[in-house]
Design brief:
The complex is a heterodimer. By secondary structure, chain A is an alpha/beta fold. Chain A contains 18 helices and 7 strands. In chain A, helix 11 packs across helix 14 and helix 12 crosses helix 14. The longest helix of chain B is centred in the middle third of the chain and has 16 residues. The chains are: A alpha/beta, B alpha+beta. At the A-B interface, helix 3 and helix 6 of A face helix 8 of B.
Chain lengths: 376, 305
């Protein structure tokens, strides 16, 4: 069923093999030496995958019992931290609900908060750094005013930052409730307006599914996968982002059991014009995590997926970029080049050259000012 | 196994530059590497009694302390704390190697130890019974902990009081005691035999010098200890020495707010602190002279025998 696994374009670096094996349930914890655990824990920590490894090991009592005590301590610590942060997200959702529920504005939870609100297995495996919301662009000012009236403060008081966010990005400058741990990011779309792809935000909100608690909504299952895909392949340089692929894999394993899911995934991708990032996400998922994707799906996407040259290039570069190098080694030249190329690609996808130059120049001037202020 | 202070200086410097050295601190094992020449003699002094372990197996933290020379700053080298491919904080001045290593280790250990309750406290033990000395700024926690360890108490930790929420015992996380400003001279006078590392002037916390844990404490660092008393020290110039028992509720409040990760542990943290205050007595100890304070604690341990 996995098309790409027969092609086998992905060959994990030796230090990644055990990590992928544990994540996929193929490697027995009892077979790993302490030295192997050492590399594995350090690599997983840097990739923000320690909680995921821990969660999956603990789900299997034999595996869990086979983890050496000093190593298990790190997994226990990671799981405790995860549970705490999950609680913080719920707390923040509560604060937002109080600020925006009367009169109610349609609010869609994105990414981590959506996984937590649906209580997906994924919610217990990943750290959520901030609370991401999606609101209709027409209601953005109202949402911002009401949040500020309820005590939220902008974390980017600098006028240039404020202007940059409002003119060129798909979210308000980040806000925070004083004393609270989480940042609040209010989006009006899932990709910046300056980029090459333009998802239909209004459609995302229309398709969102209300939660039982009655206030928040979560994106349609297909849109959750699509959002994770564009986040990784359209809005990032993919550097050390294997974590995002794990999210996509988990979402597909969860939602893919509903028969209508696959057709919806294709039709939603078409509506928003984001077949390419979806193609990359599925291709990587199948090759790296053995994500269960029906073969026919690639055929259905084919004409709107990446061309032969692009996919060959990405298959060449991504394995060198998605994962960190061995913790005891410096990155090889080929890895540096791959990272640099995908870094350039991310800018190419995100903004036109003129804007990039303008923004970089502004940043340079401001950094220069800051440095000279510090030395004075 | 040879102890750190038994290695020839060049040998230690070479090992730090190449494969690094392993140190067991009790509840954590660290792997240290560095190309900073001055770090070797400082380590040999303040970790002198620790056996040097092969740099193999599993480590809780494996940092590398590196010299960074930027163009234009050839003569003003800076230091970088490098761990697992990342540099978690800004560069430090080039002459603060040991404080940066200790500070960085604290940061990593705190970040990775949410399976234990971490109290911001010194812990010492005598006859199987431990005293927890939680810190409030300026309370003299480190000074009193150092003084007690100089008078026959076993040292378990100075910065992190590590409580196992499963069995309620304290675990050693044995490190040099960071003495600040006046405390350095106070301890030198109180215990002339104390092994102190180099003095680092004007760090973020003022002048710092580290006191090496004694040999007996090092040799027993894998033994847990049962909490017996919680002592909140309060240094006050010119004050008479007063030991006052605290009601458990107050003790609970002070302990939980003084923990690094009480909130993170959730219900497990609540249960651990509850059990701790129910199984110990809490005291506030106001003092101005170290001799009297130590004597008062010794008497407390005798009387409650």
């Amino acid at each position: 069923m996995s098309a790409a696994s027969t092609l086998c374009w992905f060959r994990p670096a030796p230090h990644i093999v055990d990590l992928l094996g544990l994540l996929g349930g193929r490697t027995s914890a009892a077979d790993l030496s302490l030295e192997q655990w050492d590399v594995l824990v350090r690599t997983a920590r840097r990739l923000r995958l320690l909680g995921t490894v821990a969660y999956r090991l603990r789900a299997d009592s034999d595996q869990w019992a086979a983890v050496p005590g000093p190593v298990r301590a790190h997994f226990e610590s990671a799981l405790t931290t995860l549970a705490f942060r999950r609680q913080k997200v719920l707390l923040e959702m509560d604060s937002v609900r109080q600020a925006l529920s009367d009169p109610a504005i349609p609010i869609v939870l994105l990414k981590g908060a959506a996984y937590i609100a649906q209580n997906l297995p994924l919610a217990h495996q990943r750290l959520v750094g901030d609370l991401d919301l999606l609101v209709d662009r027409d209601r953005l000012d109202e949402v911002e005013t009401r949040l500020i009236d309820s005590g939220w403060e902008s974390l980017k008081p600098d006028p240039y930052d404020q202007k940059y966010y409002r003119d060129w990005s798909h979210e308000l400058p980040p806000m925070q409730l004083p004393g609270h741990a989480l940042e609040l990011d209010v989006h009006h779309n899932i990709l910046p307006p300056t980029g090459r792809l333009h998802p239909q935000a209004a459609q995302l909100i229309r398709d969102a599914i209300p939660l039982e608690e009655g206030f928040f909504r979560v994106p349609h299952p297909a849109d959750q996968v699509l959002h994770a895909a564009v986040h990784l392949f359209q809005d990032s340089d993919c550097l050390f982002r294997a974590r995002d692929l794990v999210d996509i894999d988990e979402l597909i394993r969860n939602f893919g059991q509903t028969p209508s899911f696959w057709d919806e995934l294709i039709s939603h991708a078409r509506v928003h014009g984001i077949e390419r990032p979806l193609w990359y996400a599925l291709d990587c998922g199948v090759a790296i995590f053995d994500t269960p994707v029906p073969n026919t799906l690639f055929e259905k996407l084919n004409t709107r997926g990446p061309g032969y040259a692009a996919r060959t290039m990405m298959r060449l570069l991504l394995p060198k970029v998605l994962f960190t190098e061995h913790p005891e080694r410096t990155p090889a030249i080929s890895e540096r080049v791959a990272r640099w190329l995908l870094f350039l690609r991310s800018f190419w996808l995100r903004m036109p050259l003129g804007l990039l130059l303008l923004h970089s120049a502004m940043k340079l001037i401001r950094n220069f000012r800051k440095t000279s202020e510090r030395t004075e | 196994m040879r102890r750190l202070n038994e290695l020839a200086p060049d040998q230690l410097r070479g090992a730090l530059q190449a494969e690094g050295i392993g140190l067991s601190l009790g509840t954590a094992r660290v792997h240290i590497r560095s190309d900073v020449p001055a770090l070797a003699p400082a380590l040999a002094r303040v970790y002198g009694q620790f056996p040097v372990e092969e740099p193999s197996g599993f480590f809780d933290v494996a940092p590398r302390l590196e010299l960074v020379r930027r163009p234009g700053q050839l003569f003003r080298a800076q230091l970088r704390f490098f761990v697992d491919g990342e540099v978690p904080f800004e560069l430090f001045p080039g002459d603060t190697h040991l404080p940066l290593l200790e500070w960085g280790l604290n940061w990593c250990l705190a970040d990775r130890s949410n399976h234990k309750l971490l109290l911001h406290a010194g812990v010492v033990e005598k006859n199987g019974r431990a005293a927890i000395l939680p810190a409030l700024p300026g309370s003299g926690k480190s000074t009193l902990t150092a003084a007690l360890s100089a008078r026959g108490f076993r040292l378990l930790s100075d910065e992190f009081g590590v409580l196992d929420p499963m069995d309620g015992t304290l675990r050693a996380l044995l490190r040099p005691i960071a003495l600040k400003n006046e405390s350095i001279e106070v301890i030198r006078r109180f215990h002339p035999d104390a092994v102190l590392g180099p003095r680092f002037p004007k760090t973020r916390k003022g002048d710092v010098a580290h006191m090496a844990p004694d040999r007996a404490s090092v040799d027993r660092r894998d033994e847990p200890a049962v909490p017996h008393v919680v002592l909140f020290p309060a240094y006050e110039a010119g004050a008479a020495t007063v030991l006052e028992e605290l009601p458990p509720a107050r003790c609970f409040a002070k302990l939980s707010t003084n923990s690094f990760n009480y909130e993170v542990l959730g219900p497990a943290g609540f249960r651990a602190v509850t059990r701790l205050v129910e199984s110990t007595r809490g005291y506030s100890l106001r003092y101005s002279t170290l001799e009297e304070a130590v004597e008062r604690v010794q008497r407390l341990f005798e009387s409650e025998r």
